[in-house]
Amino acid sequence: MSELTSRQEGAAVLVGVDFGLPHFDSELEELGLLAQTAGLTPVARLACKRKAPDAALFVGSGKAEEIKELAALHRASEVIFDQALSPAQQRNLERQLDVAVYDRTFLILEIFAQRARSHEGKLQVELARLQYLSTRLVRRWSHLERQTGGAGVRGGPGEKQIELDRRMIGESIKRTRERLSKVQKQRGTQRRQRERRDAFNISLVGYTNAGKSSLFNAMVKARAYAADQLFATLDTTTRHLYLGDARRQVSISDTVGFIRDLPHGLVDAFKATLQEAVDADLLLHVVDASNPHYPEQMAEVQSVLREIGADAVPQLLVFNKLDALESTQHPLHLQDEMEIDGVQVPRIFLSARTGEGVPLLRAELARQSGSAPDTMTPAADAELHDATDGLGTIPPLTRERSE
């Protein structure tokens, strides 16, 4: 049995390079969670330090040999890097390591392709996927040599295969943008209808796996999918929430979670979904209080909010998973304030799972939304839209090695 055929399908070696940045995850914990979410099995992890990426192999020839030996030892079929690789680096590494090589961007795209359910979500992921693949065409595959002329053409070289592939992907990107534009117009119409009803719009934002969907379900008694995993839900769901203290209803939306180094292509593609955050009257910034890295996660969320133009929207911090904290870590008060970018922001500690602190949140939402004449009763709390169309999932990006 050859070395290649003896490799374990889906077994992956995780590699991270520390360039001196403060957010470097030396244990590669988050990359491991991403790999597992994408259906891979991490079998080994390797972290190293460099001042700058190697132009050809990202990690240098010596470290590449070490990674190759590690992959062979654990019979790994794939190597996943925690940073983005250039197409040339990816190609060179695959030749050097003799296994498939992917980066963090590919892994996130793979997860999004598996999880998207709504028509809009699928279009957004497809657009990001096509944009990613278009960059991989540059010196990526060795089979992209110039083709010969077709039938009836005498002599002379034909169009390069890489040019054909590039044009096909370009046309696909154009078609997907047009289809997505139509869906965006429909969502804009829904948004304007809510504005005409004088609705107070609230959007849940936060780092992935902070418990946004669980809190959403606890607030509106919905059945939105929630799980202890990264990117459990990608599709925006909006519902009415009746606040008895303010004698009014508000509109509350559950949005896609953020993550460190979220690919810009995904941010651009999901702007239609993230527009719910931009147009909101209040952002509920949900934080996993039990995660020791929550300050860094909060900073990443603030960065994405700035990127999409939602940083000026008022926020209410919701420190979730109070039940997961040790008794010695419990706050003295469930409601206080915390400074973000020089501004004092109200904060509430709660547990979406047990319900502790949720009444405090409802009371604070009633205070911030103000009073308005009743237009609905609590019994009429209903889903505005949950744009699932039953079309199935987008096929995941094929994990095949380049020749």
UniProtKB/TrEMBL annotation:
Cofactor(s) the protein requires to work: Mg(2+)
Keywords: Cytoplasm, GTP-binding, Magnesium, Metal-binding, Nucleotide-binding
GO cellular component: cytoplasm
Domain Hflx-type G: start-end pairs: 200-373
Pfam families registered for this protein in UniProt: GTP-bdg_M (PF16360), GTP-bdg_N (PF13167), MMR_HSR1 (PF01926)
Amino acids binding Mg(2+): 213, 233
Residue ranges, annotated region (Disordered): 368-403
Tagged with keyword Acetylation: no
Cellular localisation: Cytoplasm
Residues holding GTP: 206-213, 231-235, 254-257, 320-323, 351-353
One GO molecular-function entry: GTP binding
Source organism, top-level taxon: Bacteria
Classification via InterPro entries: G_HFLX_dom, GTP-bd, GTP-bd_M, GTPase_HflX, GTPase_HflX_N, GTPase_HflX_N_sf, P-loop_NTPase
Keyword Ubl conjugation: no
Function: GTPase that associates with the 50S ribosomal subunit and may have a role during protein synthesis or ribosome biogenesis.
Similarity remark: Belongs to the TRAFAC class OBG-HflX-like GTPase superfamily. HflX GTPase family.
UniProt xrefs under PANTHER family: GTP-BINDING PROTEIN 6-RELATED, GTP-BINDING PROTEIN HFLX
Subunit note: Monomer. Associates with the 50S ribosomal subunit.
Protein name: GTPase HflX
Originating organism: Variovorax guangxiensis
UniProt lineage: Bacteria, Pseudomonadati, Pseudomonadota, Betaproteobacteria, Burkholderiales
Gene that encodes it: hflX
